[in-house]
Amino acid sequence: MLWIGNIGPQVTEDELREEFGEHGNILNLRILRDRYCAFITFEHVECAVAAKQALDSAIFGNQYIVINYRQVCVRACVVDLVVRRGWLAGCLRSCCVHFGHRSVP
Description:
alpha+beta
């Protein structure tokens, strides 16, 4: 999955699909307008690598975009599997606050 930053408010999903789709089949595309970014999931990892190499720092929608690979957050997995079920919730919340995570469940 790719994270695309600095997406302008005028950029549409169709424009992203057209530009990034040249590098492979897109399974999922999501724009977060309030954060000026998007997430794109390709069918194959090689397609994501090719898109990042070709489009990182390119001008898209009158702005330079930044592309990175989505970082998997272990804390998010733990939250989904453990905290929301109530097991060790207090301990994990304390650890998240201690290590600087702002969004603590």
